[in-house]
Design goal:
It is a single chain. By secondary structure, the protein is of the alpha+beta class. The protein has one domain. The chain is built from four helices and six strands; from the N terminus they run αβααβββαββ. A four-stranded antiparallel β-sheet has the order 3-2-4-5. Strands 1-6 form a two-stranded parallel ribbon. Helix 1 runs antiparallel to helix 2. The protein is elongated. It starts with a helix and ends in an 11-residue tail after the last strand. The model has no long low-confidence stretch (mean pLDDT 85).
Amino acid sequence: MQMSQMLRAFALRKARLARRFRLLRDKRATVMIEMAFCIPLMVLLGFGGLEMASLTLANTRISQIGLSTADNASRIAVGSNLSLPRVREIDINEVFTGAERQAEGLDLGTRGRIILSSLERNDDDGQWIHWQRCYGDLDVESSFGDAGDGATGTDFPGMGPEGAEVTAPPGSAVMFVEIVYEYEPLLYEQWLGERTIRSTAAFNIREGRDLSQVYSSPGVTPSTCS
């Protein structure tokens, strides 16, 4: 009697262990199937996060380059105590050289353009884009006006978004910078396509300067926008 009970108990334990092993195998198979479905989605989301981070970083860098370029252009002051400081072509080119160094890795010279405008007041006390200089091969024009706009009269409102234009104070000038940059996606170019990043910045000149013209520099090619 005891032997038969022991055999039955052993058989029950064996059956329970077999069921546990079968359940374990079933769970492992289920996990593998779930992972097979989830891994591609996780990879897609991971690379998508990298793409968004890269785009955000590019926007931030372009904005900082615009601010630095406008700030550096506003500080140009070459001259002596006997005359007002002058703006020379070489000084503008050096400002662009600084922007190029700051944009290292972005290929701004090929994929973008910096447009530097001197916003001043004309003889009628209206706003006037006296001159513009550009850096970069991207074929775009200023969104807010070209050199010579507002030379007479008071119809030209200034530079910047409509209703929020930047204006130059009397007897001074504003260095207004526009940057247009074609961002190239890291991985999702076919889905996202190229993204155009635009940024603007403006600084009043830091001290009085000769506003009559941009003076030529021997052996220096002006960075014209044409």
